[in-house]
Write a structure and sequence with these properties.
The protein has about 325 residues and is an alpha/beta fold. It has helices at about 10-20, 55-65, 80-85, 85-105, 140-160, 190-195, 225-240, 255-265, 290-295, 305-320; strands spanning about 1-5, 25-30, 45-50, 70, 110-115, 160-170, 170, 205, 220-225, 245-250, 255, 275, 285. The strands form 3 sheets. It has a 7-stranded parallel beta sheet with strand order 3-2-1-4-5-6-10, sandwiched between helices. Strands 7, 9, 11 and 13 form a 4-stranded mixed beta sheet that branches. The two termini are about 35 Å apart. It binds nicotinamide-adenine-dinucleotide (NAD).
């Protein structure tokens, strides 16, 4: 297939692109490069620098590149920033995504795989959380993604759009060639690597008074290559499935303190941690039920254990201490 991947220069989009190319697909890789890196887009993909908020430009790109499907990962994704600046998130993630769907429909493209997030749930009442749980986001990031998810059945009804939303929990890990690098970084594991590499003095541990066994937040980590694989499975089934959301996690939670210990063990380095106040918008626990994605898409993680994920990410980071800059 010929596939348009938005956010292809970002962490997860670069690995989705890599797997699509490996499986013999043609990729048009779109990114504004606001948070991504041109060097993360493999040369076999056709790179297009564009912003989702340029509706006319986007419509031209979709029309001229004639994709058979779109995988839409481009987004603003920093949770605490979304609480401070919701407008940025609703513009990029809700309006930008709407621009994309309209460009797709104008070009006759009717298959969409959308990167949603566990943040749509907010603070779920039961854990692990299933896709049928109430969606009550605690931050504008989650709300901006949920708003777009909620449009999808309406586009299905009016225009026969086929879409699958994958609600990722916490992405981690790396492939041989591609890894996670943001400046500034907001995700715990790469922040711990910065401390392990001597690039920062200490790591702030946000909140030690949550209602969890050790008082720190609990998250479900999923390897980026396993996330990418789910997109290929979703593409193969999207025509038949229509509109549906799937959790993308491993059904296993790790507290922030447990993650810190895993990273200390894997890196063998000193990492100084300082406790800090809670960050706005962070729920105490988020652990996925992965039953639906296993049963309906046949997804099986190849790297379900956190230490193995951290090992792949550390291997990449040691080779690329300054990310894609070097
Ligand atoms: N990383 C995670 O743990 C995680 C968890 C849940 C959901 N997600 C979702 O997965 C997707 C990818 O996340 P990531 O971690 O790779 O983030 P990322 O920031 O590395 O990648 C996002 C990419 O989108 C691009 N982008 C942003 N706004 C754009 C716009 N208006 N037009 C064109 N390009 C734009 C950025 O330049 C960046 O390269 C996002 O949609 C994110 O919300 C990520």
């Amino acid at each position: 297939m010929r596939i348009l991947v938005t956010g292809a220069a970002g962490f997860i989009g670069s690995v989705v692109t890599e797997q699509l190319l490996t499986d013999g697909h043609e990729v048009v890789a779109l990114d504004s490069l606001k948070h991504g890196h041109a060097a993360a887009v493999l040369p076999a993909a056709q790179f297009v620098k564009a912003d989702l908020l340029d509706a006319a430009g986007l419509a031209d790109i979709v029309k001229s590149s004639r994709p058979e499907a779109v995988i839409h990962l481009a987004a603003e994704a920093r949770i605490a920033e979304s609480v401070r600046d919701p407008g940025l998130f609703f513009r990029a993630n809700t309006v930008g995504s709407l621009n994309l769907v309209e460009a797709m429909l104008a070009a006759g493209v009717r298959r969409l795989i959308f990167s949603s997030t566990a943040a749509v749930y907010g603070e779920p009442a039961t854990m692990p959380v299933s896709e049928d749980a109430a969606c009550q986001p605690l931050n504008a990031y989650g709300e901006s993604k949920l708003a777009f998810e909620r449009m999808l059945p309406w586009f299905a009804r009016a225009h026969d759009l086929r879409s699958i939303s994958l609600r990722y929990f916490n992405a981690a890990g790396a492939t041989e060639r591609l890894g996670e690098f943001h400046a500034p970084e907001t995700h715990l594991i790469p922040i711990l690597f910065e401390a392990a590499l001597g690039q920062r003095d200490a790591v702030q541990l946000y909140g030690t008074d949550y209602d969890t066994p050790d008082g720190t937040c609990i998250r479900d980590y999923v390897h980026v290559a396993d996330i990418a694989r789910a997109h290929l499975l979703a593409l193969a089934r999207v025509d038949e499935i229509g509109t549906r959301a799937f959790n993308m996690g491993n059904s296993r939670g790790y507290s922030n303190l447990e993650v810190i210990e895993v990273v200390r063990r894997v890196t063998g380095r000193e990492i100084r941690v300082e406790t800090a106040a809670r960050r706005p918008g962070d729920p105490a626990r988020l652990v996925a039920s992965d039953e639906r994605i296993r049963a309906e898409l046949g997804w099986e993680p190849e790297h379900p254990d956190l230490p193995a994920m951290v090992e792949t990410a550390w291997r990449w980071r040691v080779r690329h201490p300054d990310g894609y800059a070097g």
